[in-house]
Records
---
Amino acid sequence: MKTEERLPRESLLWIFAAQFAALLPNFAFLPLWIVGAWGFAVYWRLEVFRGRRDLPGRTVKLLAVLLAVGGLLLSYRHWFALEPMVALLAVSFTLKNLELVNRRDAFLSLLLAYFVAATLFVFEQTIPYALYGCLCIVIITSALAAQLGSYSASPRRALGLSLRLLAQAVPLMVLLFIVMPRLGPLWAVPQNSSGSTTGISDSMSPGDFTELSKSDKPALRISFDGPVPPPEQRYWRGLVYSVFDGRRWSLGVEDEGGQRQWHRSQRPLPEVGPRYRYRVIQEATNSRWLFAMARPHSTTDGVVETFDDRLIRRAPVYGRFAYEVRSWPRETLNDVVPLSAVERRRNLQLPRDGNPRTRTWIRELRGRGLDAEKISAELLDFYHRQFTYTLKPPALGGDSVDEFLFNSQQGFCEHFASSYVFAMRAAGIPARVVAGYQGGEWVEQEKYLLVREYDAHAWAEIWTPARGWQRVDPTAAVSPERIRDGLQSAAADEFMEDSLLPLHRISILNRLRLQWDMINYRWYQTVISFDSDQQQSLLKSLLGDITPLRIAVLLAIPAAIALLGILAWLWFSGRGARAPVTSRLYRKFCRRLARAGIERLPGEAPRDFARRVRAERPQLAPMVDHITAAFEKAAYSGDPMAEKQLRRLLRRFWPMRTAGKS
Amino acid sequence: MPFSIPGSNSIASRWRELTERWLSRRAPASHNVTLDHSKLFILPTRAGLAFLLIIALLWLLGTNYENNLVFALTFLLVSLFAVLPVHTFANLSGVQLQLLHAGSAFAGDYAEAQLRVGRRGGRARERLRVCWPPEEGALFDLVEQNEATVRIAMPVVRRGRVRAPRLRVESRFPMGLFRCWSRVDLDVEFLVYPQPKSAGPLPVGATAGEGNSEHRQRGGDDFAGLALYRPGDSLRHVAWKQYAGGRDLYSKHYDSSTDMRLWLDWDLLAGRDVETRLSNLCHWALQAEREQCAYGLRLPGSTIEPALGPSHQQRVLTALALFPVQGSL
């Protein structure tokens, strides 16, 4: 092996630092044995470095490979996923560490580290992760720079060098980021399916939404193109529960399939224009449903509209996802969709028995000959008069609707929605529970609506022959503030009571949190969700029109600037270093003499020159002698005093004037 | 000439010939060369190609996951890859090479040249390598000092005046992903002596003296007697046995009865081919010099009178080195 190929001493630690940085966020989900093996391999290699141990022999290496393969086979069942891929990379790091001998191994290890750092972004795209990713890149690049050893391998210099190189690369990166076309996925890739479902789930039983009200995590960020709906219209529909088993509301069997989505031809878009146009950025839910106001339509790829006026996505939302929506509020439409027999049966379904008191009461109301609207009004009035809205409702037993309506009479949105829909169905009116979010906090600076988990809400929809499906929110009858001003003002005393510190009461923290959310929103809008549409519009706004010529110009101008910069840099740093002060002073002396008519010949030694001056201009002789002596002393003995003296002498040396006077 | 390349019409050698000719026009031989854009070449190394492969993989990852952060990283690495050659190039551009001294060597050994490598401007130059491939050559930095003196060696096989091939000056700074190099002809010429090959003991007295060689010569093989030791006598000839026996310090004196002077004669080695003869003569010359025994050289067409000392040795070895290459004599 050539000596140059052997790893310089500094580089080992750099490699381990780079591997550690790239793997650190993955330690959370990697099997423990991989983490342990990696640590052990590093320890072994360091022991080799200290000379206490030898590199493992062939048998040990073979054994390690077999163990690793076996371990991976045992740890992972599904191979077509991201985690096993990262695990495989981590294992290859580990095994490579056992034979980290020459520079080629080091390069390989570091290039792999770049890849591992990139997989980090597939898991998380938040700002902290992005910053951490930058840190990783800097460390890996420094490690690469330190591989060559010698002067630049010391930690500070390698770090400085890599920062300088990366800083120079950033402008081009930004340009490429903007202009490089984005192709869609070339093939289906495994998605990150770790992490449990958060937020609203596919079923609702009493207490679920109370849990949600304890979380202030952002759920949606919505920006509007045009009018912003008033607070009482901000119902973000996500799920429709139509099956009730006496306690739990759920979606029903066939719902999760695609068969309930509309075909464009079945239900053409309304002829009138949409009232609201907006863009929703949804946090990861690991489920397929999206959130929009009724009746929605989306042009975003992979988003389809369902039978019951919702949007769902073909693939679950594993990361933040943005979609464009146009909404036609139902009251603006006058086409009443008839209810099919299947739909009618679905939305009238009730358990065979249970909740007898409610059923009796409703029968009584129907006996008075009231129609759907009247019964609904009666119910809402009942809520309004007797019920309280609370985040801490008492627990309910088997006949939950009965207990709620006639005993406890305290509840949260899901209690009201559930009991209302039950009662309406009992009255023979098609009804369903809708879950989603209601309201949201308007962020004025960035012009978007921030919807948090605690804005989760459940309400009802009933169907009447005259108006079709219409929204009824029983909670609004009890607590209009909830709809108008949000949960925080509706249940001020109870709001976020369980959190460790009542941070939401400190206004400055609230402001800071909002600021942070705004930054996040910006980040997401500009970077994460930058897709080919945004690319087109940005290019259009930059260039006016997208033609190959203009794109070429856009690329050529920065390229030309960069090229000129590089040339200038090469020119200036390649030019001779500034001459020392002493020689500059001596040159000044020569220039003055030249003006007086005595030119120094090229290559003439100072002393020879002085002799010549003495011969040609005797009257200058004393000064010239002094100056030459001072120069020689300053230049060759490095005497700072002599330099000062030379300066002083030159100040009085004006051969032109002397020559003129004589 | 002995180096007729086998299959010299093959493509590889044609190519080599063409590039050499092109280089000799582009960068003619000179003792003093400053590297600039006209002499520098730059290409990615194998690590650089692997880096491109990683970029391609990252692009696939970013495309398939529609992940802009992965894209950003991909483009950052692409940009880094675009920035690096500038640094690698700047690291070599403006480096000045000057031949200080080209030494001499024996065939089969390494010939060493001394170069002065300086820089134009104050920019630090790191990890410069100067070598005659496939030798490793010298690896050095110009960071704090403005110039360095480096010694590089190449193996020499043939005796005579050997023109060194073009030097390779290269650098992979800063990240090893690009290699910038130049092929510099510093007009280095080595004087290569024949490879010393033993031909038995020194041929003392083997040659009949020519002309007036009747006088006895000191420093032969035959013991001539003892004389009192005088400062300056060789310690090797001190009669230690007698001294140990309690007597004064004596020197043993030798002389040669047949021929007094040592002649390294071409004709002594008749029957061997030219190069072997020269090698043998070379070996003798070295041996004689080591034993401090004055020697002369007789070659067809030239004679060097017996003497001792470095300059004499130099003359003798040079004569051997430059002995014309001939088919037969």
Note: Chain B has three domains: 20-193, 195-216+258-329, 217-256.
---
Amino acid sequence: MVPPEYYLVLSAAIFCIGLFGILTRRNALYFLMSAELMLNAAVINLVAFSFQWGNLTGQTFALFVIALAAAEVAVGIGIVLVLYRNFGDVDVLNAATMRW
Amino acid sequence: MSLVLQGTATDWAFSVRALLPVVLLALTGLVVFGINSLRPDGRDNKLLALTSIAGTLSALGVAIWYLLAGTGQPTHGGAISLFSGAIIVDGLGLFFTAIFASVATLVIAASYDYFESDANPASFYSLLLLATTAMGLMAVSNSLVTVFVSLEMASLPSYALVAYLKDNRGSVEAGLKYFLIGAVSSAVLAFGISLVYAATGSLLLPEVAAQIGSVGDLNGVLGVGVVMVAGGVAFKTASVPFHFWAPEAYEGAPAPVSAFLSSASKAAGFAVGFRVFATGFQPALDIGIDWGLLFGLLAVVTMVLGNFAAATQTEVKRMLAYSSIGHAGYALIGLAAITAGASATNATVMGAAMAHLFVYGFMNTGAFLFIAMVERWGVGRTFEDYAGLAERAPMASLAMAVFMFSLAGLPLFGGFLSKYVLFLGAINAGFWWLAAVGAVTSALSLFYYSRVVKALWLESPTTDLDAVGDVPTGLYAAVIVAGVVTVLLLPGFGPVIETAEAAAAALFA
């Protein structure tokens, strides 16, 4: 059996890749993909430790997380669409009429 | 332990009855959808608004009735546990549901005028009602699964509400920024929950608490998980370090939505924070994961940053946005002044923070709704543009003065007592430095709040105020009601703080 530490390292690595993508990408669609990556890191943990602990709580929650991630993307794509209509681009830095 | 379904049939009638305030909100949202799909071309703004208000008022009524009757409280058989303990109906849940329903009622009454010319107001009302439903669920969540699901259920309609004015660049930009930071912080929260699960093997808060003592080597994993869950709470409550969406989202969003987010959504974040950390993570304090200190630092930074940034603003709406960050800092004291084992003082401080959120729900919603009215009149956004409005709209300006002084904590309105009890509770719990920072920043806040009052009442108009004559019924009623409640909460503060402290005491029992 693969020791649980390996899963933790894998999921932490994927989480950090997602975070890196969010901090560096300017395209809103890449941004969405990076956020998905971070959520999937959580899903890996949940499934791995569900197996480790011998209960199904984690696997069931993983299904909820996947469903919510899909819902989040649906809303996100809608916002990206109105962003494109208003600003003519999907660059998140273009939308800067208010200061940060 | 496996997830085999229990043999006995779940008693649905009982669950629905226990969750009645939340169920009523959800049903109203669906009825609004139904009305709109039966008459897709009839705009029915009045019918939709009245239906929505009927729903939120009945949810408010049931929540208050349950609170008075003692449902789910220690005196009447203790908290009602539903769905294998994933949902728990108790004083805290009902108290916060009352806040959400009151704020939603005021916001819907105001939206009736604000979205008068909107092509399809039904989508606005139903999104608002569904977000309120999800907040009600957040307040009764007793498992990290229901916490995450209900938090997302509240966030998704909120993103759409902020970006609701599809052709307005400010609204779209606000929605984008809120969504981007929301997506990141919900991923952080999910990862934190997965780490807590990795360390403890459970997601139900009482079971997490029971397992924390025996995590052994996974102590560090649990610590990182707890910090990340705190990050999720910080996003929802607009506290440092996930606060920077708030000024943008509140400034760009339609003003009724800003009112809703800065009052109800913030309170929902605290409802989750209070329950998760008091019920689930309290034993972590014993094994060196000092989240109390973490929240203490966040509270200080949030109070200082919110109030100082508010003092430098030139636009009233943006000033209120930063002031709402500052108020998140005050409420964070309720989580910061927690020490392991001191149940009585912990309950006092947390109850005071809940009571402050209750008062804040009225005074802050009222202030943002006044801005909604000014936006409708087409007067500008800066302090100078507000000059002389009192001549044209004395009642509304009087209400705005009440909100400003109450937010600052002057001893004439509800906001004074809630802050006083909160700071006093912090001192009694031994956290005098939190109270000191709170008192100093409150004094500073009087500076920028009084600027609004000065502009309204003392300065002469700089712009043409001819449009101000128009009196939008719903908006006016909402502002006046919020103002009256803010004043009445000074003599009527006793029952609020007693209910809040009893609810908090049940968490620490």
Note: Strands of chain B lie at 80-82, 87-89.
